Amino acid sequence: MSPSPAKQRRRRLLPNRKSKESATNQLRGPLTRSRARAQHIVIENLTMDQLPQRLRKKNRVDKLTDLNDDCLLSILEHMNPVTLTTFAETSDRMNGLARYHFRLKYKCFDFISLIGVNNEVNYGMAKQLFKIFGDLMTSLNLARYLFANQNDNLSYDLLNLIKHHCCNLKTLKLEDIFIETQNMQKLNALFEPIETLVLDNCSFQQHNIGFGNMKHLKKLKMSEFNCSWKKTIGRNFEELEQIEFDSCHGLLNEYLETFIKANQMLKSLTVTECMYVTSNVFSAISSLKQLEEFEFKSSRLAENTIQTDLMHLAALKNLKVLNLDCMKSSVAQLLQNLVKNSIQIEHLELANGTMNDDTLASINKMKTIKILKLNEIAELTENQVVGFTKELNQLEQLHIKTNAKVTKYSLTAMVQNAVRLSCIKIDSPALHLDTYTYDMMLASIRKRDENIKLDLTIYGNCEQILVPEIKQLNDQNDRWFCVKELDRTHNHVFPKWSSNGQGSDDEEDDEFFDDDDELAILFSEDEEDFDPIGFGEVPSDMEISDSDADVELD
């Protein structure tokens, strides 16, 4: 007997219930919740592939968007700029969080930071980065050599992206950038809001490179820069305060002279590694009444006019920082005129010069000196160095590199004399410290009226400058005294004057404290257990050489 039509209809709607998967596969028609209940199918237990397309969106699990903003920002801390760019494209909320994080961490952006993320940087990556985060950047370092697939228009394409997307850019450093004549005029708007511009190994093939529109420019540095200067160098930048010419061998003296005369509000001028600088340039420098810092290194002057050229600097009434390459000559006459004109020098650095009685007397009369740096000064003796610390009451930093022998007794006298001294860096042959000398210096530091910590850095050839007993001291006196021993092979008192010609443009202190190169030993002693040693007779077990005995201790 055949089943009734009603039973046949019910069998077609209720197929075999062997498994949930077979139920869904045999189901005819659309799957609804009522039909699923009739077939005892639990929709929540089905996989995403088993669900119909219209139910997949409602049942997907998105745990990331369920997190609050604080948790998401913590996740963003571990993202590099490339990943952050991809994350920002997922949704409006993620875009806002990514931009907030970028503004906090990457607003001063350097493309070198991408090298550790990707083996190479490409134009597409830069385009997406500028498109999403360009308006948040206030400082940008762009180097063309970092990019793969370089072509003739890469420099222009990158700068064009910056022009369109980086509307709040204030500091721009360009390296290895080449712009042809036909494209230069299109980029003029890029330079208008810039306040600090660094051009390193760049070449602009046009007279007018847009500098005339840079009304907000305050700092300008040109290193190995190539362009036609005739229409550019003579421009007057209304707010320009600081300029640096480094290795600009194509810079003619007549253009440099014109530039200096057109920008009388300069406060800082640096000329390094340039070719012959004529007397007319120094004459123009003397007209800079607002100049406070002047640096002249590794450049050349005519031998017969060195003294006359340097004398122009005595007319700079507001000069506070003087960094000078003496070119194996004496600067006594210049220093005498600086003292005569009551110029308040606070930072004096001299290199490759000679030290005679007139030079010594002039330096000792500059009572406002806070930082004194002497590099390879001929005829400089340890007694003269001790005399500087005694005469210069405001002295805070003393950097010395000399072939003369500076003994431990001289070092102790320096610490005793200069009560405001906070930093000593010294490179001298055969300088050795022992426990007795260390204790004497520590006692002098603790007797000061002001609690000023002294950092002592000694440069040698790792020949055991410090006796083994000192190395056993702990670091409990770090608040008073810190002694470091560095290998002069890899560390330099004056990094910019190193023999290989390499040195950082950053503060020199950053060069002296490299964790990879330094052999640092910190000496300290607990204040309660300290028993100061008197400054009476030297113990009989300590040998005193004839040169040591010549140094008078106060």
Structure notes:
This protein is α/β, with parallel strands linked by helices. Among the domains are: 5-59, no CATH class; 385-554, no CATH class. The chain is 32% helix and 15% strand. The strands form two sheets. A 16-stranded mixed β-sheet has the order 1-2-3-5-7-9-10-11-12-13-14-15-16-17-18-19, with no helix packed on it. The chain has a three-stranded parallel β-sheet with strand order 4-6-8. It starts with a helix and ends in a 5-residue tail after the last helix.
Can I get a quick summary?
This protein has about 550 residues and is an alpha/beta fold. About 30% of the residues lie in helices and about 15% in strands.
Q: What level of helicity do the residues show?
A: 25-40%
- Cα-based radius of gyration, to the nearest Å: 35 Å
Helix/strand/pairing category: alpha/beta
Overall geometric form: extended
Strand order across the biggest sheet?
1-2-3-5-7-9-10-11-12-13-14-15-16-17-18-19
Mean pLDDT: 77
Report strand %. Answer: 15-25%
Largest sheet: 16 strands, mixed
Q: Looking at the chains present, what oligomeric state does this protein adopt?
A: single chain
The overall strand count is: 19
